[in-house]
From TrEMBL:
Gene Ontology MF terms: oxidoreductase activity, acting on paired donors, with incorporation or reduction of molecular oxygen
Oxidoreductase as UniProt keyword: yes
Highest rank taxon of the organism: Bacteria
Domain Luciferase-like: start-end pairs: 19-314
Taxonomic lineage: Bacteria, Bacillati, Actinomycetota, Actinomycetes, Kitasatosporales
InterPro entries reported for this sequence: F420-G6PD/mer, F420_OxRdatse_Rv3520c_pred, Luciferase-like_dom, Luciferase-like_sf
Name listed for the protein in its UniProt record: LLM class F420-dependent oxidoreductase
SUPFAM superfamilies reported in the protein's UniProt record: Bacterial luciferase-like
Keyword annotations from UniProtKB, A to Z: Oxidoreductase
Pfam name, any one: Bac_luciferase
Length: 336
């Protein structure tokens, strides 16, 4: 199992300590570093900045939001950064949810998310292969555009720039069993959310029959500390935001996943509290047991014991959410 460093997205502004942290992770032998985006900082620009100040570590998006860019634009970002970094790019994509897609990007959330994802990945692959001008007769990403409000003058185009790698890895963030099953068919890897190594069946039977070489790269908060309950507070804060605020009360994929994992009553309570503006109560309502099973928190010996569960399953890459250099060093030592 390889190690990655997950940086997420910025809060109020950039963190000046991130580049030194990535450089330390590279020195420790971490395989990859990953950025994200929500409705603030983008995923690609920080990776470019990091690429210029590192030499070996792979560069991934976990995730770049599909609604933010047409698939051709995303492919342009990926192939450009792949060239600039000497072939270190890994493209992780996610669909997000209706609240973000319609509220931030001003686009309709697709009525058929699986189809929209499949079309998106197909166009990205076409750009990267550069075998012919890119075309798509799809419902969500037609190329050329033939809508009634168009000019009718669009024509299929092939990338001017020759991609460095036609096989640049494409990973997908997927939560529901059908989405995970499709991911195993059309992508090179999967970015699970809330991975619980003791019960992968939450994501469907496909996790037991993944293709050879398929990447499984979940994120997990990692913290070496003496007080487990205190170490879990950042995990609970993240869960409170995602489950309570990252989606509508009637349609929140993160809350639905938590419910499938056996915490339905808690998930609905967190949603209710968050939407009522009682955010601190929402965070405290996250069960310690749930936060604990999807993270690696506690003394070194406890993390070492629990790390064996992660290594025993299908996980190929553990993406550590940890801004702490000491924790990164301990994790590297334990995984050696």
């Amino acid at each position: 199992m390889r190690l990655g460093l997950a940086l997420g997205y910025w809060g109020r502004g950039p963190d000046g300590g991130q580049v030194p942290l990535v450089q330390e992770a590279e020195r420790l032998g971490y395989h990859s570093v990953w950025t994200a985006e929500s409705w603030g900082s983008d995923a690609f620009t920080p990776l470019t900045w990091i690429a210029a100040q590192t030499s070996r570590i792979m560069l991934g998006t976990a995730v770049a939001q599909m609604a933010a860019r047409p698939p051709t634009t995303t492919a342009m970002h990926a192939l450009t950064l792949d060239h600039l970094s000497g072939g270190r790019m890994m493209l992780g994509l996610g669909l997000s949810g209706p609240q973000v897609v319609e509220g931030w990007y001003g686009r309709p959330f697709p009525g058929s998310p699986l189809t929209a994802t499949r079309e998106y990945v197909d166009v990205v692959r076409q750009v990267l292969r550069r075998e012919a001008p890119v075309t798509s007769g799809g419902r969500f990403h037609p190329l050329p555009y033939r809508g009634a409000d168009g000019t009718g003058l669009g024509k299929p185009l092939k990338s001017i720039t020759h991609p460095l790698r036609a096989g640049l890895p494409v990973l997908l963030g997927a939560e529901g069993p059908k989405n995970v099953a499709q991911t195993a068919r059309i992508a090179d890897g999967w970015l699970p959310l809330y991975w619980a190594p003791s019960r992968p069946e939450v994501y469907g039977d496909v996790v037991h029959k993944l293709p050879e070489g398929f990447l499984v790269a979940p994120m997990a908060r990692v913290k070496v500390c003496d007080d487990v309950a205190e170490g879990l507070l950042p995990v609970k804060a993240m869960l409170g935001f995602y489950i309570g605020g990252m989606g509508h009360a009637a349609r929140n994929f993160h809350a639905d996943l938590m419910a499938r994992m056996g915490y339905e009553e808690a998930a609905r309570r967190i949603q209710r509290l968050f939407l009522e503006g009682r955010r601190q109560e929402a965070v405290l309502a996250v069960p310690d047991a749930f936060a604990d099973e999807i993270s690696l928190v506690g003394p070194r010996e406890r993390i070492a014991e629990r790390l064996e569960l992660w290594r025993a399953g299908p996980v190929t890459d553990l993406l550590a959410l940890s801004p702490d250099p000491h924790t990164l060093r301990v994790l590297a030592e334990l995984n050696a």
